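Batch job 17 of 40 flagged for manual review because the log was empty.
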Amino acid sequence: SLTGSIMQLKVDGELAYIATGNRPQDSEKPTVLFIHGTGQDHTIWVLPARYFARHDRNVLAVDLPGHGRSGGQPLNTIEEMADWVIEVLDTVGLSTAAIVGHSLGSLVAIAAAGRHPERVRSLALVGVTVPMPVSPYLLECAERDEHRAIEMLNFWGFSKSAQLGGSPAPGNWMLGGGMRLMETARPGVIYTDLNACNEYIEGLDHASNIRCPALLILGERDILTPARSAQTVVKALPDAETVVMSGSGHALLAEQPDPVLDQLIRVV
């Protein structure tokens, strides 16, 4: 199916699930493609996906292979994920897109724009750093599918104030919601994602090959991808702007959804 609120199509012979913001695709409109982070799925993009779908954009919020409702096994490298994203555009019949990625997804966005520069018209990189090393202990816990890996990712991923409460969506618990989403990941997915981030060594080369503008949206209190560490990739990108969200941790889409959307509106 290529119309309606979702698309389900075959990419590399496996079912790919893509949320569209409840709008059909129109080749005359600009496209924005959203890529989630480690162990997550398209649901982290509900607010921006709905906004852009209602403001004359084609929206493709993907579940990467092996994630969410997409079939197949998780892909082992950032480069494979990037090429898969371009195959999604090919399958849908769209020539170019703005790509928005969070964390793991930001690396996939960089690789897609670096390997296929003619296909990407702009980038928004949320919670990004290049390289993106992962602690050996976290990798070991994830490889054993221990719940401790999910706990570490979320306790480090949310700022201390966000862990106490204060969700922008009344009645929701940000930390609990983040953990529950990762708990739905299939065995091996979180390890595969983290290992792909850890082993992605071509990021700065890919960044230097990008030909479109890039906006980096960073969290002031991000422990997983500290804002200061993003300067390396900023220097590698030909056209980059940085915005630091005051008080936010790595989970920017949960902690500061409206300010993040305000920034995305500027570039996609």
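Reviewer: the log was empty due to a logging misconfiguration, but the result itself is present. Residues 78-92 form the longest helix (15 residues). Unflagging and moving on to job 18.
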